Amino acid sequence: MSGTATYRDAVRAGIRDALIRDPRCFLMGEDVGRYGGCYAVSKGLLDEFGPERIRDTPLSESGFVGAGIGAALGGMRPIVEVMTVNFSLLCLDQILNNAATIRHMSGGQFSIPVVIRMASGAGRQLAAQHSHSLEVWYAHIPGIRVLAPATLEDAQGMLWTAIVDPDPVVIFENVMLYNMTGSLPAEVRPVDIDKAAIRRAGTDLSIVTYGGSLWKCMAAAAALAEAGIDAEVIDLRTLRPLDDETIMASVRRTRRALLVDEGWRSGSLAAEIMARIVEQCFWSLDAPLARVCSEEVPIPYPKHLEDAALPQVSAIVEAARRIMGAR
Amino acid sequence: MSGTATYRDAVRAGIRDALIRDPRCFLMGEDVGRYGGCYAVSKGLLDEFGPERIRDTPLSESGFVGAGIGAALGGMRPIVEVMTVNFSLLCLDQILNNAATIRHMSGGQFSIPVVIRMASGAGRQLAAQHSHSLEVWYAHIPGIRVLAPATLEDAQGMLWTAIVDPDPVVIFENVMLYNMTGSLPAEVRPVDIDKAAIRRAGTDLSIVTYGGSLWKCMAAAAALAEAGIDAEVIDLRTLRPLDDETIMASVRRTRRALLVDEGWRSGSLAAEIMARIVEQCFWSLDAPLARVCSEEVPIPYPKHLEDAALPQVSAIVEAARRIMGAR
Amino acid sequence: MTGAAADKPHLSRAHARELLHQMQRIRSFEEKCAELYTQEKIRGFLHLYIGQEAVAVGVMQALEARDGIVATYREHGHALARGLDMGRVMAEMYGKQEGSSRGRGGSMHIFDAAGRFYGGNAIVGGGLPIAVGLALAERMRASGAVCVAFFGEGAAAEGEFHESLNLAALWRLPVLFVCENNLYAMGTALRISESEPEIWRKAASYRIAAEAVDGMDVVAVEAAARRAVHSLREGEGPFFIECRTYRFRAHSMFDAQLYRQKAEVEEWKKRCPIRMFGDWAVAAGLLHPDEIEAIGREVEAEVATAVRFAEAGTWEPVADLRRDVMTPGEAS
Amino acid sequence: MTGAAADKPHLSRAHARELLHQMQRIRSFEEKCAELYTQEKIRGFLHLYIGQEAVAVGVMQALEARDGIVATYREHGHALARGLDMGRVMAEMYGKQEGSSRGRGGSMHIFDAAGRFYGGNAIVGGGLPIAVGLALAERMRASGAVCVAFFGEGAAAEGEFHESLNLAALWRLPVLFVCENNLYAMGTALRISESEPEIWRKAASYRIAAEAVDGMDVVAVEAAARRAVHSLREGEGPFFIECRTYRFRAHSMFDAQLYRQKAEVEEWKKRCPIRMFGDWAVAAGLLHPDEIEAIGREVEAEVATAVRFAEAGTWEPVADLRRDVMTPGEAS
Ligand SMILES: Cc1ncc(C[n+]2csc(CCOP(=O)(O)OP(=O)(O)O)c2C)c(N)n1
Ligand SMILES: Cc1ncc(C[n+]2csc(CCOP(=O)(O)OP(=O)(O)O)c2C)c(N)n1
Ligand SMILES: [Mg+2]
Ligand SMILES: [Mg+2]
């Protein structure tokens, strides 16, 4: 399993591992079986595990996500794939009002160990209805955990961590990452999800991001390095709960922060992190915080407009420079 | 119509006025007719306007909200009542992927003059599934306008402003306001929705809020005044687009700001406003920003726990004091 | 008594007593709740089940301890009929931590792990997919247990109703769908909410076996539920029962009932499931009027005890507010 | 040709030519699109309609200019059959601002106000409530216009399908529901997604008149659509047509088609709606082989012109990105 693999392979390895290790585990969702998954994540799993455990569902997001929640209540460990976050609007009620709520509301009688995976993000010219990044909505919900693996190791390892988590876990897989290649560890290990990761250490400013935007930030950091600006890049990894400690430690060191988030600007996750930095590190800041988010428009189809709507390396570099130049 | 009335009466007056003025206008939703509305807002309207224009719907949030969007596309001016924001999760797809998106995605060919009203907020001991404040989710969506009338005048006047707005407008009516009394103007006037309102002028700090929390902030400001702290209270009124100008002008004057928002803290609208203040007024700030939001728990049923979960006057006062005491 | 009950001559005295007793427990409990609501001991929304008792009691007869149950915000009756302790249910109504959900849920969110009672769901239709999932878990484990979903006829208009029926049928899951058709969804009469008001007919769209039954007749409901559960346990896939019933009270405590005629309510009250069954059982020689009185006294005492228990209950400390948002401790 | 077409002897030569012409336009346009996709002129998702042409073309014959249309992401055929300019549709595929949606929507979001073509909706089932609302607007205005919703059989599992049918029936709205049953939803075969795979039967749950028709037979589809639209205009409430058809190509350009056998596809290709109708029209003496050839040439020229138009089209300036998020100017 080690060697060159894609992010898609990593997710698949994580799912496969979970299916092998835990007989209560099964995968369910639209086209996860015969089709092999809309992003080919589950290809081959139907042959290996059969239709009971690789369960193709009808187009009924609320129905099968609710069924996943019910099955988890009933003692199973379902992995429910909602093809993309765009369709997850149809099952938000189940996630918020049931998965996230039943434990507290019942006085702690039930845990709901369901894992809900979904692809998110834009960049494939799929236009307005198929390009959402709504991670922040999910990160707003008490009672669930929200993960956004940005590396192969996380894509694989977070799956098992999510499975053994007794509470509902929502995993966002950015669509632009599926083809990303790298190497997978020979052995599947659960990864810790309590900590954000410093993907690049730096001293001049902290760039905080997650998911697909991580790699844009890494590219921006490289470009900034050439211009003599040493950026630290933090990959949040877990969007709920947020790892304030790592973020604040970084910002206290660098005294400047830039947030990069593919979500629309107003009400973005970037805003939440800015709010926390101001609450916790205000006196350490040497410059206003800034963010690079998506333009507040439905994402258009043509490449040049889609590019213009999304955070790009150049915009990240520019924003970082502005922060460094401020006062 | 002038004299003592409730917020509920004000909303009704607004709806009635719209129905009289514009024959394309109709009200539709669960129990708006025979029952008179779950919060008695539409009581009497069925008798006055008949079942074609006061249209009881089955329990089908996605269906009838989508039908409202379609009717708006087809030239009508529907007012759709989604009983409460709690049930609006079931129609979020229609709102985000159709109402908010079709205009831009079609290259500007269609406007969608639909008005969607919903009750929101907690405080009535309705427990976890019936106590949501998800205004921030809606405020995240490009392509719609989001209003949160906190006064009788706004409750009445915003309705007409919303009706004549060619784009989708979502109106949040906080459940704790329906019984609030006051006087209504003799004549219904559309109110401007572009501006936040300074409900109390002050010099020491800016308290920014909206909806049901406004009155808690006003009470807190009164208490603070006794302690010699002169708070300015800003009622956002419109949650999307936000009136940065009024907010920033206030913060530049007071140099301190407290955000009060009944939404859960992480990913709250308060966070967005904090982010904007840091982006736009960083150098004017004399103290860290702070926010009072709901605790990150499903809202529990018993009064003492519900109270503990929601922003309260005492917490607002305390937070304001802390801000004033900082450095 | 209608024909269906007459079809069931094998009713033992003990069972007749049990049926009446269970229905009376619900009735008396709820009448007390209404009173306590006016005293503001119970707050929030309170949806009474009065008039519909035959449904919960009839269906529960067909279930075993291993079977799961999903209900709605009008679920006191189901909770009691399932065997939840009345004191704990009453404490829940009060919001006391001795309540079945630690007081966190209140009237609309009664849960009980031991009784496999999965709520108490205040989103109309929201419990149906959960029931499908519970049944899926049973099927994957081949446990032989079934799951029952109770819901109102109003829920049949929701998309989740449709999605749930299709999933259950497609995967042949042991779900018993029990539609309690009380003719109104809040103030919306069935005829203005469904183009096909015979709800049981909708099951045909999913090839689900279905029948309509007199929901005021506890014996008829029990008989139908037994047939259905038998079929579920045989692996025949889901079953759908429409119980025709009526709620005698307002939708909730805030409802002026402008949408229906008093005469209609009175007409239905003549078919009170408790009185009808009691009268019939006496006439059939199954119960003696003294026994009925004894049941009344017994239930009154149980309700009084429950109220005392709730009154004596304590408030969860505010410090516990964040407890159980997430599961504490280590991963399972 | 099947019986249904034979039932329609009143087909004029002109009309036969029109039917063939329209189907051929769609076929040739899409074959070109597939080619342009491999050249990366068209990007994103591209869902071809090839094989299903008889449905869009047949149904459109029954519509008037005032009628509204709601379709899916597989809507090129509907747009062309509705009379949208092929050049503007092709420019949309390119994302050029001369496209029918200014290039913003691409393949999945063709809109045209003049043609009352309301998209192009990429959320399965998402267009159905919109169609109900459009019909409601017509009904409230007593305009006499109707609204047609096209959707795949996969959409029938979504809750919105159910909610929409109920609303339309309840309010007797002039909606024509056209289910294009091509047996697959992406890679999910109908039999594993619906417990009742005869989709038209589901209409009975809502008391909606319904029929199934051979969707490879343009004349049969037209005849059914005419009957349906006639009934709609008479105010008889909604109508449901299930068209049994097949897509010859992959679901989208990313689909390896692991879920179906080549032989099955080949079998269906024998029932190609264009070839079948052409052969029949020639045999019936309605069209001369030369005319068919002429149609081919005409269509080829039209496609070439459309491609030239798209190629010559321009990119919307980035400065316009935020344009039309909200309606500019004053309130209406
Ligand atoms: C999704 C949703 N929409 C609306 C409501 C508000 N509501 C609560 S009960 C109810 C009526 C439900 O009627 P029915 O299903 O027949 O059950 P009954 O109350 O008659 O037992 C409504 C509209 C809700 N709780 N959930
Ligand atoms: C709500 C929703 N869920 C999932 C998808 C992904 N998806 C796109 S097309 C499709 C299959 C739809 O099948 P059908 O309705 O039969 O139409 P067809 O593609 O066969 O024309 C799926 C699952 C989607 N677009 N919307
Ligand atoms: Mg009912
Ligand atoms: Mg299909």
Structure description:
The complex is a heterotetramer, with two copies of chain A (327 residues) and two copies of chain C (332 residues). The model of chain A has no long low-confidence stretch (mean pLDDT 96). With 327 residues, chain A is an alpha/beta fold. Helix content of chain A is 37%, strand content 21%. Chain C has one domain (13-308): Thiamin diphosphate (ThDP)-binding fold, Pyr/PP domains (Rossmann fold), CATH 3.40.50. Chain C is built from eleven helices and seven strands. Chain C has a five-stranded parallel sheet, sandwiched between helices. Chain C is globular. The termini of chain C are far apart. The chains are: A alpha/beta (327), C alpha/beta (332). Chains in contact: A-B, A-C, A-D, B-C, B-D, C-D. The complex binds thiamine diphosphate (2 copies) and magnesium ion (2 copies).
In short, what is this structure?
With 327 residues, chain A is α/β, with parallel strands linked by helices. Chain A has helices spanning 7-21, 45-49, 61-73, 92-99, 102-105, 135-139, 152-164, 213-226, 244-254, 269-281, 303-309, 313-325, and strands at 3-6, 25-29, 54-56, 77-84, 115-120, 145-147, 169-174, 181-184, 197-200, 205-209, 231-235, 238-240, 257-264, 290-294. Chain C has one domain: Rossmann fold, CATH 3.40.50.
What's the name of the CATH homologous superfamily of the largest domain in chain A? Thiamin diphosphate (ThDP)-binding fold, Pyr/PP domains
Task: Report the principal-axis shape of chain C.
Answer: globular
Q: What general outline of chain A do the C-alpha atoms trace?
A: globular
- How is the CATH topology of chain C named? Rossmann fold
Integer count of domains of chain C: 1
CATH class of chain C: Alpha Beta
CATH architecture label name of chain C: 3-Layer(aba) Sandwich
Q: Helix and strand string of chain C, N-terminal first?
A: HHHEHHHEHEEEEHEHHH
Bound molecules: thiamine diphosphate, magnesium ion
The Cα radius of gyration of chain A reads 19 Å
Distance between the termini of chain C: 52 Å
> Briefly, what CATH class of the largest domain in chain A?
Alpha Beta
The average pLDDT score of chain A comes to 96
> From the structure provided, what is the oligomeric state, counting identical versus distinct chains?
heterotetramer
Number of beta strands of chain C: 7
Strand content of chain A: 15-25%
**Quick one: how many beta strands of chain A?**
14
- CA radius of gyration of chain C is 19 Å
Low-pLDDT sequence parts of chain A: none
User: What is the rounded distance between the termini of chain A?
Assistant: 51 Å
Q: For the report, how would you describe the main beta sheet of chain C?
A: 5 strands, parallel
